């Protein structure tokens, strides 16, 4: 009996929990849905959406933010110091704000979606990436919550890798070239031994963009 992560067969909102469990050496299985199979599972999910973490005893936990924090606490990737934890949460919520900008674009017709995503990148999204660049640029050799890797470093890594994976058709895969601090941080986390090992085993599809820079 092990944990199960219910999601689609893509990185998306489940990737950070997968990384955390993998780095922490905590066994888990992926339960994948397709657009054809999800409607049957949807009513069984606590809030009708995934990701959902299933505990070995069958309990279910929804919301990626809750799943990431719970698994990070199990894996020693959630800071014990209250201020360090608040710094990690602060950066995590900045990413949530950034990702929320794109939510209304996903179901637009292709051309409108591309245009809307380009407008986000030139406007509010640029502001958020600027704030994140400043935050990461001031870390030196460290991590967001101090001198130790925490869940939020993985959230930043996963968000930035997804952003330039080609999944966002309005976002150029070269975007991080405009943000050297983001590019350097993404690459630094991609080279963390546990992260690198995960993508050596899981490199299919969008995950090609999660590997270290060549
Ligand atoms: N705030 C939730 C959002 C979850 C969410 O939007 N899940 C999407 C996939 S990324 C989903 O389940 N979509 C299918 C549906 O809503 O029927 C979280 O972070 O877990």
TrEMBL record:
Entry-linked Gene3D superfamilies: 1.20.1050.10, Glutaredoxin
InterPro entries xrefs: Glutathione-S-Trfase_C-like (IPR010987), Glutathione-S-Trfase_C_sf (IPR036282), Glutathione_S-Trfase (IPR040079), Glutathione_S-Trfase_N (IPR004045), GST_C (IPR004046), GST_superfamily (IPR050213), Thioredoxin-like_sf (IPR036249)
All residue ranges annotated as the GST N-terminal domain in the record: 1-79
A Pfam family: GST_C_3
A molecular-function term among this protein's GO annotations: glutathione transferase activity
GO biological process: glutathione metabolic process
Domain of life of the organism encoding this protein: Eukaryota
GST C-terminal domain residues: 81-210
PANTHER family: GLUTATHIONE S-TRANSFERASE
Name under which the protein is recorded: Glutathione S-transferase
The species this protein was found in: Volvox africanus
């Amino acid at each position: 009996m092990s944990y199960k992560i219910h999601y689609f067969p893509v990185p998306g909102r489940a990737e950070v929990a997968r990384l955390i469990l993998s780095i922490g050496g905590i066994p888990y299985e992926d339960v994948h849905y397709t657009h054809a199979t999800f409607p049957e599972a949807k009513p069984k999910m606590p809030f009708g959406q995934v990701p959902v973490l299933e505990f070995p005893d069958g309990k279910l936990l929804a919301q990626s933010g809750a799943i990431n924090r719970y698994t990070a606490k199990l894996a020693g990737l959630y800071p014990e110091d209250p201020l360090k934890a608040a710094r990690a949460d602060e950066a995590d919520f900045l990413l949530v704000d950034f990702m929320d900008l794109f939510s209304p674009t996903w179901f637009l017709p292709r051309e409108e979606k591309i245009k809307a995503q380009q407008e986000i990148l030139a406007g509010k999204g640029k502001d958020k990436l600027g704030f994140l660049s400043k935050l990461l640029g001031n870390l030196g050799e460290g991590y967001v919550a101090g001198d130790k890797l925490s869940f939020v470093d993985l959230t930043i890594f996963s968000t930035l890798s997804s952003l330039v994976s080609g999944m966002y058709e309005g976002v150029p895969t070269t975007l991080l070239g405009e943000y050297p601090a983001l590019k350097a941080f993404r690459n630094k986390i991609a080279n963390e031994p546990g992260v690198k090992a995960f993508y050596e085993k899981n490199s299919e599809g969008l995950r090609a963009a999660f590997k270290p820079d060549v």
